[in-house]
């Protein structure tokens, strides 16, 4: 999986930002395992936690930062991001795109559940914008991990809504710090420091007190008022117009954006479609060839822009500010918004960033281009185990468009199959069969359709259909259709094991031994190895199974890091062998460390592995 380095970079603290000393002191002096900072937009959650992050680093702690977005609501992607963030945190600086695998074999679960004595290990993990995570498997796994999080490890979450995972045991033991809107409001002392840092003189005490009462400690309101005072507004007019929370978006537009010169307003509106800001992309969208200077000025002026600690520096708008600009553009110039998304898509394609370009093509309502791009990227995403990404794309495309592309139908069927959305998976492969009957398919698609159907029947435990469909496919598939033949054989062989037809299973497996290795057949071969080992375990041949497992582990090391599905197959059987040899502690440890790659295993797998 490839990730932008900006996801691992905390915002840089502006010189005029108020240090949340009391909050940081409390967090530093108490052994909290979980810190939840929850508040609506505009309360300075991210800035407060970035300040805590800086305090930790200043006192010698190893910290990792991860900014989340909606595409991260996928089990494999989420935990791969955590691994990358913890490894990135150990480098002095983050340079370039973080698209290489971690150099260490350390697994994220070792970090989450084991007290590591290595002084270089990350001790604090910050998860920003956690409200985008709703996948139940992620939340359930986190719930379990939190119960065993050792001291001095700590997870810090910034979120707009209360996280939907369980942490009651930690709360009962006083190990959770919950930071809400009241805790994030500026105290009177912090309000005074804010105006001092911004070099603003408020004059008479009565006027000062009136303003502070109206602002009610709300950090974004303070920033909005400071901007007006810096641009020549009188204190009386600021007090008269001081924002209430429910009117903040309107207030920002009327009192912050509208007074700016037209070129700067255009820049803000045109770049509001971007999640991350860098000079080349901002130039492409705004037409302003001094985009780097504009970004630096926006940051220096405190205009709701955060600088990320990347090299070279990149920026992002405060979420509430960005949403306000985007909504204003959507309401007043909807066609202009569509055109900007198309420009962003074209720019990203020119930099070969097809994956990010897809989202802009969809928002530009360019369904033909989006479908074409998704058709190219979908199977790559599936090999990276990014099933939810493909499922999300498929929900944004009209069904009529998907139905016209056999490659899209195949990719959508596989993605929904792996995601256990079986009704949708069946819908897509039936449409692919209909397309086949009407127009015919290329040979490779015919082969893939055969293995897709067998795998669907396997996951839905329709064992009678597996035997019939797999036998027919194996008769019809050519000998060089390695992946599809092996996939059908694996499902059929595994079915025979479940039916206690062990010799039939062995014969089927032996028929696939000549499989050639390439990027599309590793998955089938790893599955083949695993099914053979299961067969040997069922027959009590544990030593032979252990030898075969070692071969599978060697193969897993040769598989590229973009094929998480193939890499995961041997983990449950390895745990089974440890269990059979009586090493319960190692069995539990192995399973806990690899939960992130075995979540798709069916109950039948565990019934087979642990009851034989």
Question: Radius of gyration from the CA trace?
Answer: 28 Å
Number of helices, counting only DSSP H or I runs of 4 residues or more: 33
Give the tally of β-strands: 8
What percentage of the residues does DSSP assign to strands (E)? 5-15%
CATH class category name of the largest domain: Alpha Beta
Distance between the termini: 37 Å
Helical fraction: 55-70%
CATH topology of the largest domain: Rossmann fold
Query: Uncertain runs with pLDDT below 50, 5 residues or more?
Result: 91-109, 113-118, 596-612
What's the CATH architecture of the largest domain?
3-Layer(aba) Sandwich
| Sheet/helix structural class | mainly alpha
Mean pLDDT: 78
Described by the principal axes of the CA atoms, the overall outline is globular
Count of folded domains: 5
- Strands of the biggest beta sheet: in what spatial order? 3-4-5-2-6
What summary fits the major beta sheet? 5 strands, parallel
Considering the protein shown, what is the CATH homologous superfamily of the largest domain?
Answer: P-loop containing nucleotide triphosphate hydrolases
Descriptive notes:
The chain is mainly α and 612 residues long. It has five domains: 5-184, Rossmann fold (3-Layer(aba) Sandwich); 188-257, no CATH class; 262-365, Orthogonal Bundle (Arc Repressor Mutant, subunit A), CATH 1.10.10; 366-435, no CATH class; 442-611, Serine Threonine Protein Phosphatase 5, Tetratricopeptide repeat (Alpha Horseshoe), CATH 1.25.40.10. Helix content is 60%, strand content 6%. Strand 4 (124-128), helix 5 (136-147) and strand 5 form a beta-alpha-beta unit. The longest helix has 18 residues, at 422-439. The chain is globular. The protein starts with 10 loop residues before the first strand and ends with a helix.
């Amino acid at each position: 999986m490839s990730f932008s380095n900006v996801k691992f970079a905390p915002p840089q603290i502006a010189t005029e930002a108020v240090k949340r000393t009391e909050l940081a002191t409390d967090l530093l002096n108490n052994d909290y395992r979980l810190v939840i900072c929850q508040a609506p937009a505009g309360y300075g959650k991210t800035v407060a936690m970035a300040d805590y992050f800086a305090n930790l680093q200043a006192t010698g702690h190893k910290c990792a930062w991860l900014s989340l977005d909606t595409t991260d609501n996928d089990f494999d992607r989420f935990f791969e991001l955590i691994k990358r963030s913890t490894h990135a945190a150990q480098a002095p600086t983050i340079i370039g795109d973080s698209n290489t695998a971690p150099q260490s074999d350390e697994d994220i679960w070792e970090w989450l559940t084991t007290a590591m004595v290595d002084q270089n290990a990350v001790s604090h993990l910050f998860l920003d914008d956690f409200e985008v995570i709703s996948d139940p498997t992620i939340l359930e796994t986190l719930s379990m991990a939190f119960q065993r999080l050792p001291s001095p490890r700590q997870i810090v979450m910034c979120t707009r809504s209360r996280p939907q995972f369980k942490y009651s045991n930690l709360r009962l033991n006083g190990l959770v710090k919950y930071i809400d809107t009241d805790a994030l409001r500026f105290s009177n002392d912090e309000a005074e420091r804010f105006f001092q840092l911004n070099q603003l003189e408020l004059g008479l005490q009565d006027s000062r007190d009136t303003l502070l009462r109206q602002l009610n400690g709300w950090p974004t309101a303070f920033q909005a008022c400071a901007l007006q005072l810096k641009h020549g507004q009188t204190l009386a007019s600021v007090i008269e117009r001081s924002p209430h929370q429910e009117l903040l978006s309107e207030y920002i537009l009327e009192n912050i954006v509208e007074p700016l010169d037209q070129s700067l307003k255009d820049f803000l509106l045109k770049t509001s479609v971007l999640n991350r800001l860098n000079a080349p992309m901002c130039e492409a969208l705004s037409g302003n060839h001094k985009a780097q200077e504009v970004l630096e000025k926006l940051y220096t002026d405190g205009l709701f822009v955060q600088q990320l600690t990347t090299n070279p520096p990149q920026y992002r708008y405060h979420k509430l500010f960005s949403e306000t600009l985007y909504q204003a553009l959507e309401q007043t110039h909807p066609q202009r918004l569509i055109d900007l998304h198309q420009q962003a898509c074209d720019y990203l394609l020119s930099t070969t960033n097809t994956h990010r370009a897809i989202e802009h093509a969809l928002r530009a309502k360019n369904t033909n281009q989006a479908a074409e791009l998704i058709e190219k990227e979908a199977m790559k995403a599936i090999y990276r185990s990014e099933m939810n990404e493909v499922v999300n794309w498929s929900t944004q495309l009209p069904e009529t468009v998907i139905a016209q592309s056999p490659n899209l139908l195949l990719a959508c069927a596989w993605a929904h199959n792996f995601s256990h959305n079986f009704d949708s998976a069946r819908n897509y492969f039936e449409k692919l069969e209909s397309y086949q009957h009407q127009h015919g398919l290329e040979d490779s698609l015919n082969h893939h359709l055969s293995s897709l159907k067998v795998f669907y029947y396997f996951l839905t435990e329709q064992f009678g259909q597996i035997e019939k469909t797999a036998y027919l496919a194996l008769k019809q598939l050519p000998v060089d259709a390695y992946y599809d033949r092996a996939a059908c054989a694996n499902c059929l062989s595994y079915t025979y094991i479940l039916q206690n037809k062990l010799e039939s299973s062995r014969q089927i497996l032996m028929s696939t031994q000549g499989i050639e290795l390439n990027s599309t057949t590793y998955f089938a071969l790893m599955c083949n190895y695993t099914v053979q080992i299961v067969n040997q375990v069922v027959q009590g041949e544990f030593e032979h199974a252990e030898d075969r497992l070692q071969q599978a582990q060697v193969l897993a090391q040769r598989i590229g890091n973009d094929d998480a599905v193939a890499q995961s197959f041997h983990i449950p059987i390895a745990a089974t062998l440890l269990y059979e040899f009586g090493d319960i502690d190692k069995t539990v440890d192995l399973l806990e460390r690899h939960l992130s790659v075995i979540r798709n295993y069916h109950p039948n797998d565990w019934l087979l592995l642990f009851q034989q």
